[in-house]
Amino acid sequence: MARQKRASIHYVNNADFSQAVVEYVTIVNKAQAENTEIPKVPDYIAQCFLRISEGLSHKSNFIRYTYREEMVMDAVENCLKAILNYDIAAATRTGKPNAFAYFTQITWYAFLRRIAKEKKQQDIKMKYLTNSGIENFLTTEEGDDLSQYVVGQFIDTLKDRIDKVRTFDAEVKEFSKVEKIKKKRAVTADSDLTEFMNE
Asked: DSSP string spanning 126-141?
């Protein structure tokens, strides 16, 4: 007897989800045309947004971030804001609506925006630490040479680490600029066989 695979708690049935989104957007469009109150997003759609966000947050790209919950909530918020932008007439390869892909993409970019915000905050903290004169806060009683040495080593290590991170970030930015320039210059070669045909 074959063992059955346990269903994931983050599983979203694309067909059911897409149908629910299409129905909701249709109702909203009708309400907007008639100038009536826009209905609330159904619980099923909201739960699917949460499942999509949670599922994506468990991917190796995002699982180790300490602010993963904030990423998930940002993504759910962005999905709720973007639901009215969903184009029910958009063509897909199968001809069926694919709301799962649409909202997964929104989730992905919400995660990237949160990572950028957190990185900016981390940079601000690091700049504050380097410029704050932290050694003045960590001084101990005069005459205690060992503790002065430990505090000095801690401060030097902290500043060295901040400088390494700053240098690494600058190198990554420079590398990405170079790669973008290379991509722009790259010309896709056509299957030009004239050189061989002339022989």
From this structure: HHHHHHTTHHHHS---
Residue 84: partners with Cβ closer than 8 Å, 6 or more residues away? 25, 28
DSSP state of 91: -
User: What is this structure's pTM?
Assistant: 0.66
Among candidate residues 36, 41, 73, the one with its CA nearest the CA of residue 54: 73
Owner of token pair 């030097």: 156
Q: Which of 97, 59, 52 is nearest to 78 (CA)?
A: 52
Joined tokens for residue 120:
């900016």
pLDDT (tens digit per residue) in 99-126 = 999 999 999 999 999 999 998 888 887 7
**Side-chain-side CA neighbours of residue 169 (13 Å):** 11
Give the amino acid at 100. Answer: F
Nearest to 49 by CA among 105, 118, 116: 105
Q: What angle do CA 11, 13, 19 make, to 5 degrees?
A: 145
CA distance 150 to 129: 18
Report residue 38 as tokens: 């826009």
CA dihedral sign, ordered 163, 166, 168, 174: negative
